[in-house]
């Protein structure tokens, strides 16, 4: 047993000596390098390391943590031998000028995995484990944050759903009555039931848009509501508000202007019947309410507002402003600027605001025909084209309008008076198709028998057909025309003698007989 342990000790010493003190020529630069350094210094070729004593008799101290063999520790069964070993002395100092050996560059320790290498591995494993622990902690923190966000979102969505369900079960806010004063609500073109509901809430007709919308959906007549203005009592229950909106008397501010109508009233010579002017029509359409609470704008208020010099407040378009400002009669300065057709206005406004709405809408309608771009052939400004269109409206039936427009253009180019009876009647309170010699001889700013050129302003509200005819007159040489019967048959010619014969036909039919 003793020999066995002795041999083992000897082998261990030899391995440790080789591991600890073996020189590596590659690490130290080789012998040639030492020879060169020695010769350069003027000394001998003998290395300075030759005097170094390699004490291999030192037996290192062993611990149980580093056994020699994997199956059993060294000296496990011999306590006497273990007690004879002394601690391993410190390694000798590194020679001057030596270069350290690179880690893992050969040698028994690097090949066999010595204690220093195993210690470095442990440190590397410890750092990797620390990094992994930090990463796991960070992932857990992110996981908690994401979980918290999802929990908050879920709770919020659940709360919203609960509130919505509770509101649906409780119903929408609604007035119980009694009804308040009348208010005017506008329905715009293309409005849906929801948009109408919002307008109702804004005017305090209903308490909530939801209540009105539900009542509107249940009423199949809601699809018949037309754009315009409606007078409806305020603070109504939603179902009653829908019924009031659909009522036949709720529509207000709806104006219908027939083609060729003038601003002021006129009377027929033969029957004495009054032909209502546009101002009278506006006054009737402006009424709100019934009985003692009925409110309307009057004819006189509109006439006074229409004569105002503040053309911008009246809505006069820029292309007509200069001519309107120089009008010979202020009460007629807006003639022709309110177009024929159906127009809507807010009757709760002032007379000036009402006229502004109507003139603005009419100007947009006129301009839609290309009025501002016309005149290349006729040599007429937009306002002059409007004046001429009002003459066409009063003188011709729709099928003859393009020819009458050509007669106007041809006569203006020739410098010949137009001689239209409609321009004579315009200044008269009592009118008829025929005119007297005295009426035709009376000089006025509109009488085209007494002067050449166009009247000072339009003489009626022209239709869009008349305006288009004047913008694009039918080509032809005509200079004269006359209506020869009550059916409206009109004859055109460029010969004055033929025109006189056509006038005789008109007299024979009785259409030119005067009731004065």
Q: Which tags fit this structure?
A:
516 residues; mainly alpha; 3-stranded antiparallel sheet; 20 helices; 46% helix
Radius of gyration: 57 Å
Helix share, percent: 40-55%
Helix-strand string: HHHHHHEHHEHEEEEHHHHEHHHHEHHEEH
Query: How do the strands line up in the largest sheet?
Result: 1-2-3
Shape verdict: elongated
Outline the biggest β-sheet: 3 strands, antiparallel
Strand count? 10
The number of distinct helices, counting runs of at least 4 residues, comes to: 20
In round numbers, the mean pLDDT is: 82
Structural class: mainly alpha
Strand-residue proportion:
5-15%
First-to-last CA distance: 165 Å
Give the low-pLDDT segments.
Answer: 28-58, 62-88, 100-113
Structure commentary:
The protein is elongated and about 165 Å long. The chain contains 20 helices and ten strands. The protein starts with a helix and ends in a 7-residue tail after the last helix. 46% of the residues lie in helices and 7% in strands. The chain has a three-stranded antiparallel beta sheet, covered by helices on one side. Strands 6-5-8 form a three-stranded mixed beta sheet, with no helix packed on it. Strands 4-7 form a two-stranded antiparallel sheet. α8 (209-218) crosses α9. With 516 residues, the protein is mainly alpha-helical. A hairpin with a 6-residue loop joins β9 and β10.
């Amino acid at each position: 047993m003793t020999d066995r342990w002795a041999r083992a000790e000897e082998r261990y010493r030899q391995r440790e000596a080789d591991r600890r003190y073996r020189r590596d020529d590659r690490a130290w630069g080789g012998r040639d390098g030492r020879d060169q350094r020695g010769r350069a210094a003027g000394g001998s070729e003998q290395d300075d390391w030759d005097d170094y004593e390699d004490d291999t008799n030192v037996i290192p101290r062993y611990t149980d943590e580093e056994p020699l063999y994997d199956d059993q520790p060294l000296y496990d069964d011999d306590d006497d031998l273990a007690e004879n070993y002394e601690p391993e002395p410190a390694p000798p100092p590194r020679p001057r000028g030596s270069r350290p050996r690179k880690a893992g560059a050969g040698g028994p320790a690097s090949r066999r995995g010595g204690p220093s290498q195993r210690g470095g591995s442990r440190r590397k494993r410890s750092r990797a484990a620390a990094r992994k622990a930090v990463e796991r902690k960070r992932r857990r923190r992110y996981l908690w944050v994401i979980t918290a966000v999802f929990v908050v979102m879920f709770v919020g969505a659940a709360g919203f759903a609960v509130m919505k369900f509770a509101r649906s079960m409780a119903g929408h806010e609604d007035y119980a009555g009694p009804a308040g004063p009348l208010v005017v609500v506008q329905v715009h073109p293309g409005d849906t039931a929801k948009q109408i509901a919002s307008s109702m809430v804004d005017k305090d007709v209903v308490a909530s848009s939801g209540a009105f919308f539900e009542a509107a959906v249940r009423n199949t007549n809601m699809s018949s509501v037309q754009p315009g203005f409606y007078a409806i009592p305020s603070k109504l229950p939603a179902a009653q508000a829908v019924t009031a909106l659909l009522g036949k008397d709720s529509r207000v501010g709806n104006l219908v202007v027939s083609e060729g109508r003038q601003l002021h009233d006129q009377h027929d010579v033969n029957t004495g019947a009054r032909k209502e002017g546009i101002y009278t029509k506006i006054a009737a359409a402006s009424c709100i309410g019934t009985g003692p609470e009925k409110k309307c704008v009057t004819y006189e208020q509109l006439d006074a507002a229409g004569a105002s010099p503040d053309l911008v407040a009246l809505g006069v378009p820029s292309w007509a402003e200069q001519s309107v400002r120089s009008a010979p009669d202020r009460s007629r300065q807006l003639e022709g600027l309110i177009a024929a057709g159906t127009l809507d206005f807010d009757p709760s406004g002032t007379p000036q605001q009402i006229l502004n709405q109507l003139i603005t809408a009419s100007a947009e309608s006129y301009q839609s025909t290309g009025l501002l771009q016309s005149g290349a052939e006729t040599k007429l400004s937009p306002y002059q084209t409007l004046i001429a269109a009002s003459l066409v409206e009063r003188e011709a039936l729709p099928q003859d309008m393009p020819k009458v427009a050509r007669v106007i253009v041809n006569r203006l180019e020739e410098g010949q008076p137009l001689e239209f009876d409609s321009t004579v009647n315009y200044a008269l309170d009592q009118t008829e198709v025929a005119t007297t010699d005295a009426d035709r001889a009376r000089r006025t700013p509109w009488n085209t028998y007494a002067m050449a050129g166009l009247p000072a302003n339009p003489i009626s509200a022209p239709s869009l057909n008349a305006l288009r005819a004047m913008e694009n007159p039918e080509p032809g040489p005509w200079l004269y025309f006359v209506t020869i019967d009550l059916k409206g048959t009109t004859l055109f010619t460029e010969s004055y003698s033929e025109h006189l014969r056509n006038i005789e036909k008109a007299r024979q039919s009785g259409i030119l007989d005067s009731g004065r």
